Each structure stands twice: as structure tokens, then as C-alpha cells.
Amino acid sequence: MKKKDTSLFDKKILKEAFINSFKKLSPLELLRNPVMLSVEIGAVITTLYAIFDIISKVKYAWFSVNISIWLWFTVLFSNFAESIAESRGKVRASSLRESKSNLMAKKLESKTSKEYTLVSANSLRKGDMFLMEKDDIIPIDGELIDGVLLINESAVTGESAPVVREAGTDKSSITAGTKIVSGTAIAIASVNAGETFIDKMISLVEGAKRRKTPNEMALDILLISLTVVFIVVVINFRALSYYTVNSIHKGSVVSLVVLISLFVCLAPTTIAALLPAIGIAGMDRLFKRNVIALSGKAIEAAGDVNVLLLDKTGTITYGDRQAHDLLPVEGVSKEELAKVAYVSSIGDTTAEGKSILAFTKENYKIDYTPNSYKLMEFNASTRLSGVDIENDIYRKGSFDAMIKFIKSLNGEIPKDLESIVSKVAKEGGTPLVVSKNSKIYGVVYLKDIIKPGIKERFKDLRKAGIKTIMITGDNSLTAATIAAEAGVDDFLAEAKPEDKLSLIRKYQEEGYMVAMTGDGTNDAPALAQSDVAVAMNAGTQAAKEAANMIDLDNDPSKLLDIVETGKEILITRGAITTFSIANDIAKYFVIIPASMSNSYKELNVLNILHLSHAHLAILAAVIFNAVVIPMLIPLALKGVKYRPMDAQTLLVKNLTIYGVGGIIFPFVGIYVIYLMLELIWRGL
Questions:
Q1: In this structure, which CATH number among 3.40.50.1000, 3.30.1390.10, 3.90.1150.30, 3.40.50.1820 belongs to the domain 291-316+451-552?
Q2: Residue 10 catalytic?
Q3: Which of 311, 523, 531, 551 is catalytic?
Q4: CB count, 10 Å around CB of 390?
Q5: pTM of the predicted protein model
Q6: Residue 614 pLDDT
């Protein structure tokens, strides 16, 4: 789909997020975030105190007024972080709605029916049959049961190149809102109106049905536990100050406003404020890569994956076999073989045929066009193809098929042919035997080309502790050769659906998190078993229903991007959590001596910034605690970039950047704010 501008500073997004920040002040909304709910309760209490202090003309009324204002800002900034993430999703969702408005359907009573009834797409139900013709917009998700279509899926994927969908294949699934370029077909609705894939996408990108992941829930429990601990600490501070005044007769009772300020600064408000935004932004980042995550748990699992199952064809290799070399039999030159191979491929529109023409033309300068010829297209019974030119017969085909063909012409089989064929097969290639009349000239070495850069990506994944396994229907010899060339850790050859399922269960029983891709009905059991299951949007309905992620681009290699995105989300959450906790450590050295040094002079040793005015020091800490939230929103939304490294190196890096940085930055920030407040104070 055409991606709309959803940058952080988009005016529409900022305006909507600003309005929603106030709407989310409702305690019912904040129940999902107990830490920020406790901050809001503190803001209410300090506001009441501020009003009382103003009415009573208390000397330090300005202090309680400013504290209450900045506590409200803290809650609003937290709401703003979540709202801006949600607003980005809503902007994306609006572009999806445009692709399905006012759709009509040509409903059929039966597959053989020639007459259709034009009805609203909203009236279609699962199981209804409908006709589709050129220039029609597909009204509902379905499966082709008859015919072939060329479809423009740019409304969903953003890709302008049309794709083929054919009944009875693994590419039979169609999506509502996409446009038919050519062809006529009959389909059966696989869902009810309002339950289409686009409807699900709209709901998901808006975040309406997003559930918290186990990791998020564990972090929530940690944050709530810390909050409870700090509430107990603050209560004890109050009790201690009473004891000091009444029993030791020194100092003064710490005010409730100061205690609330102490609690807010000690509580993990930064991560509590940004955690919802990180989760929503994670789904948004995947969406920008044209992947729809059907659950928050799937994203988290992607970050924890340590075993990747990848199909060879289309993921590791291009899938189209290309001419790689010419291997003539004894007594034949490469030039002679090249000419026969070229002529036998004239008129061949397959990828293999085109590659033979290109290879021989480029390497042997052959450019021959006969005046007339009879094309012999590939036949499933003979498994041969070629051309007849006058009295000459040019053929190419598999070893077995060519042996049978040459013997039928009473030709001789070269003694070294079998060894040449075996050599090509052992190297992972496909041997294509070439002949002219009854004479075999040699073998065209066809090779499924490894995608550039794939070996380096597997190397990076290995550094991150992820094992890669290639799945292929090839024999073991061919699979081993390609696996070695691609750089995967292991392979499964001659793979059947039950073999994939068994392999996934084996790794899961050993404690691994497993991810795989698939598009066919035969992939559904393995997809359902996988922790991260990525189905191709063009695949069958069974595959999509078994998966927890859908790839709109139908690119199986996207699995590598999904793993990286999942790790970015986990790393981002870890980085901001580290920063938040380190941030609080720095604030201890400001707010504790400012709160209690009046009663316990010994605590002044913690005042390493030498802040002389206690009320200004506390206010500076509260202000910093609030403003650091919007400062970190870009990081929460964009995420920390994933770079392959082992867990120990990553931990050290995070502790260095976000741990040490999280301690130093607050000291600088609070000190600068304090100096500004002091200037204002003196000016007044």
C-alpha cells in the first residue's frame, strides 16, 4: 500500500496525540498502567494541597503549585507517548480503509451458473461464490476454485507488479481491495464481510486488539513491585520524620507534597510511561516492512528466536535455475555443445531456457535465428523440449528421459555422460542433457543461484546465537552442497510436511524458540506448531490461519527481517528499562538529601551537586523526571538498532551506554534545571 507520512512531527498525528493525552487522564484508562495511575493520584493530592496553601497564604505555596503542575505534566507526557504511537497506526489504517470502500460483488448461485447478481460486498458470507473479471476490485477474501487471474495487489503490498493467482495451487488465495488486471475466475468467500484480512489489518495497526506479551507483563509486575516498595519507603520517611520531631526534637515533619515528589522521582516512571509506546511502535515497525503481526506475543517471540527454518527455494536461492556451465562429453568441444544448447532453447520461454540462450550468447558469441523451426514445448510424458529445424532434431531434458529418447533413435550413449551427470548432481546443480539428432553433445549445468548477501546474513545470525536450517525437497547430496554454499548450520532434505513438524517439535522440546515460513496447506501443521509462523499473503487460507504473522510481500526471506525487528523491540525495551533504573539512582542523590537533611545533617554527604535550596532541588528533580519522557519518545518509537552480537557483549554495551549514561545525564539535566530555577527565584 502507499505508505502515508507518519513521521514523529506530522501535524495531524501530534494534534490527535495531544487531544488523546487529556482523554487518557481518566483513571479507568490509567488502570492499565498502575505506576502512572499512582502518579496521577499524587498529582490530585498535591493539587488539593496547592489550593489549600494558596487560600491559607502559606509561604511556600509556590512550591506545591509547581510540583502539582509538573506531576500533571508527567502523566500527560506518558499519555502522549502512548497516544502518538497509536495515532501513527490510525493514519496507516485510514489508507487501508480507502481500499475497501463501496465494493460490489458478482454473486453466483453455483459454480456452473452463468448469471450473477450484483450485491454489496458487505452482504457476502463465508461460502458464497462470486465471479471476478478484468478491472473488478476483489470484494472479499477468498480462494479461487476455477480460473487464473493476474492481480494488482498494490493496495495491500505497495508492489506495482501484478501477480498470478491460480485455482488448485498454493497461490490461490485472494485479498479484498486488490484489483484484477486480466483473467476471469470464480472464487468462494473464506470469511464473512467485516472479517477480511484488511479489516484485521485495520484493527491491528490501530492497536485496538493488541495484547501485552509475557515479557511486558513480567516487566509490569516488576514496575508495580518497585512502586509498592517505594510507597512503603515514603510512608516510612513520614513516620521517621514524625519520630525525629517528637522524640529527638530536631528538624521538621516532611510535608506530604515533598513525600509525593520523593515517590514520583524514585518510582520507575520513565519506563512505565514509554512501555506501551514501545509495544505499539513494534507492531508499526513490522507493518512498515509489510508484515502484519497478528499478536504481540509473536513479535516478542521473534526477538527470542534461536532456530530458523527456511525454505531453500525463494529464500536462500532465487528459485529459477540458471545456466552455470557447459560440460561436453568426450570428443565434443564446448563451442559445439554451446551451439546445440542454444538452438535447442530457441522459443523456450522458461527461466531455464532463457538463461541458456543468454549464457551461450554472452560466453560463446552465438546469435543464430533459423528461418523456420517447429517448437517442441516441454511435455510431461516425454520430459523433453527443443526444436525441429528441417531434418535436424534438437532436444534437451533430464538424464533418464534423454537416454530413453536417444535409444529410440538407435543412438549411442557416451561412456562419460553418467559421470558428468553425477558430478553436477553432487555439486547441487541440475544436469540438462543436450542432443542433436541421435548424438548427445553434453550437459548444461543448471544451478539454483544463491541470493547475494545471504551467507553474510546467516553469519550475523550465528553471531547472535541463532541456528539456521534449510528445508528442501532436494536429495541429500544436492541439499548438502547448497547448504554449504549458503552457509546454513544444518539442512533437512527430501522434506515432507510430517518431517517439518517433527523437526520443530524436536527443537521446542530442547527449549528452543522456532520460526519458519510457509504458504501451502501442507505447511499449515508446521506453521501452527512454530513459535513464530510467517505465512505468505498469496498462500492458502489454511496457511494464513495457522500463522501468527502475514508477509504482504510474499517474500520468505522476510523472516530474517522479522527476527531483527523482534530483537530491536526487546533491545529497545531493555535499553529504556536500564536507563530508567539508572536515571532513578541519580535522582536519589538529589531528592533524598533535599527532603531529609533538615532532620539528618549526615545526609548532606549525598548532595554531591551541592544544591543549597531544598525546595528548588526537589522541583528540579520533578521537572527532569517529567521532561525526560518526551525526550525519549523518538527512541521508543524508532527503536534501538539491532546489531548481531552475543548476549554478554550486548549486556555490556547496554549497561555502558544506557546504564552509565542514565546516571550521568540526570545529574547534568537536574543541575541545569536547578540553575535556571535559581535564576528565576533570585529575579523574583
A1: 3.40.50.1000
A2: no
A3: 311
A4: 10
A5: 0.63
A6: 85
